[in-house]
Amino acid sequence: MSSSLNKKLFTFTSIVDETYVEQMTPKQFELTVHDYMEEIGNGLPDFKITHNAQLVGSDGIYQIDVLASYTALGVKMVVLIECKHYTKAVSREKVQLLYDKLRSTGAHKGILFSTAGFQDGAIEYALRHKIALVRMLTDRFENITNSLEKPKKRDFFILPKPPKFIAECYCDEQLNYIKLGKIGGLVKYLTGEISENN
To answer: 31 has which bridge partners?
Structure first.
């Protein structure tokens, strides 16, 4: 993947195929996240970033997808960045593992990137433990949680669950679906208890 594509991607002007993210390999996803974080972190004092790093913790050595550090207020800050190239939403357990790495290594911040979003439990856990969650879409990165402060409301829209249907009905060249709890009205209509205009 060329750096010119990355630049376009991160400035929200890229028009790429809808399956672009799905077709990436996990390593390409990690490198894309690395390049994105490098681009936005370059202005920080003493900024350094490494792909596929190892970090010593209190209970062993950890592999970190992307490791970043910088200086703020005279203190070296360490950020652990994990990348999950999944087809299903990331579970709470994956966020817990990142939090465990933070505690063991003494790192200051955790960010988890995903290609497939996050389960509700993962989002709630991340909010409680100040871990940032970011989803990669075709043309941009979307912040699911930003843990600078604990928001009262989530800053994203969750689509409502689709209604459950119990049957299909093909009538007058139209395919219709019968919702749960609505079968009674159909039965009354078919038996002539109610007219078409009611």
So the answer is: none
Round to whole Å and give the CA distance between 118 and 124: 10
Q: Within a 10 A sphere around the Cβ of 165, how many other Cβ atoms?
A: 12
For 196, the token pair is 């078409």
Alpha helices in 109-161 (DSSP H): 120-128
pTM: 0.64
Question: What pLDDT is stored for residue 170 in this prediction?
Answer: 47
How many other C-beta atoms lie within 10 A of the C-beta of residue 41?
Answer: 15
- Domain segments of the chain as ranges: 3-145, 160-198
- Single-letter residue type at 57: G
On whether the 3-145 domain is CATH 2.40.50.140, my answer is no
Return phi, psi of residue 22, to 5°: -65, -35
pLDDT (tens digit, 9 = 90+) per residue, 93-104?
999 999 999 999
Asked whether the beta carbons of 180 and 165 are under 8 A apart, the reply is: yes
Residue 27 CB partners (closer than 8 Å, separation 6+): none
